[in-house]
Design brief:
six-stranded antiparallel beta barrel; 8 helices; alpha+beta; 17 strands
Length: 341
């Protein structure tokens, strides 16, 4: 119900994502330091805009996916996954120590005493606008701003990892309940939603869950995430693991992450993917019934020869075999509020 509500014409859902790691990167060399960690063209980000990116190992494996914004407030704003928070922080701090030892002017701050809520759904802008003086119609997808929301100082970023229009609001922790109450009082259509619903939404949008769909054994090539590797960074190969990632990209070999529609039974992580001859050619990494499409959707990895849309496959669900078809993702069209050019 929460998934359908988030996607419906009048729906707005509030997700508590305060467990995410929020970091501020300070200093004159903050951009070059950030580019030593991730695959994005941070230097090329327009003021107060951002992008989804990847922290990579020196072998090109994905340490985590993250979102970075180039603010006009003297710092980069970085949000990383909660499940990787300890690992990410240790990795970033180790690189920070090396950077400072080499003379770089950079520092990393864990954003103190702030929570994070995601407000998602097609009516988000109308609901939030009632508490904001600034015009939200010019806050486009992956743009960010410091705004007073019902008098509460917040960072509002148009994103949310659900495939729907929405924002993530970084709010002082001691005023989070106040903000949520204001949002819910603004419209009867605003509902609280759990992270299970958010997981269904991200799967319908074809978005990866770290630890399931991507990890340090996966490069952006296998994960079909090369779109996150900026053109300048590809040419220079100057991100961690750049040489290996570009070698794999040009070799066109190995496995790839794909979308599947599975007949009759929902597929779950680690279920084998078979070709029509019954040979194992891959493995499911995420899967569930889709509330929006009414179909059993999944993503997983298969050998390169099985990546063409429409390819017939099979999935083993416990001891039974069910037909499946390779399809394009997202499973549900995304509704990002993108600036028209």
């Amino acid at each position: 119900k929460a998934v359908v509500s988030t996607q419906s014409t009048g729906g707005v859902s509030i997700f508590d994502v305060s467990h995410m790691l929020q970091l501020l990167i300070h200093g004159a060399d903050r951009i070059s330091f950030m580019e030593s960690l991730i695959v994005a063209d941070v230097a090329g980000l327009a003021p107060n805009t951002g992008t989804l990116s990847l922290l990579t190992t020196d072998q090109g494996g994905i340490i985590d996916d993250c979102i970075v914004h180039n603010t006009t407030d003297g710092y980069l704003n970085l949000v990383c996954n909660a499940g990787c928070a300890d690992k990410d922080l240790a990795h970033i701090m180790a690189r920070l120590e090396a950077a400072k030892s080499s003379g770089m002017d950079v520092d990393v701050e864990i954003k103190p005493n702030h929570s994070l809520i995601a407000v998602q759904g097609p009516m988000m802008e109308k609901v939030l606008q009632s508490g904001v003086k600034d015009d939200l119609s010019v806050l486009f997808f992956n743009h960010t701003a410091l705004l007073d929301v019902w008098g509460i100082p917040c960072r509002v970023t148009r994103c949310g990892y659900t495939g729907e229009d929405g924002v993530e609001i970084s709010v002082p922790s001691d005023r989070t309940v106040e903000l949520v109450e204001k949002l819910m009082a603004a419209s009867d259509d605003v509902k609280l939603a759990g992270l299970g619903a958010r997981d269904s939404l991200r799967l319908e949008a074809g978005l990866c869950l770290y630890g399931n769909d991507i990890d340090e054994t996966t490069t952006p090539v296998e994960g079909t995430l090369m779109w996150t590797v900026a053109k300048r960074r590809r040419a220079a190969r100057d991100f961690p693991g750049g040489e290996e990632v570009m070698r794999r990209f040009k070799a066109k070999e190995g496995r790839r992450r794909v979308g599947l529609i599975v007949e009759k039974a929902p597929a779950r992580p680690h279920y084998p993917i078979l070709n029509t001859a019954g040979d194992v050619v891959g493995e499911v990494t995420s899967g569930s019934p889709s509330p929006c499409t009414g179909k059993n959707i999944a993503m997983g990895y298969v050998d390169l020869e099985y990546t063409k849309n429409g390819t017939p496959l099979q999935v083993q669900v416990r001891k039974k075999i069910f037909p499946a078809t390779k399809v394009a993702m997202p499973f549900v069209p995304t509704q990002y509020y993108v600036e028209k050019k």
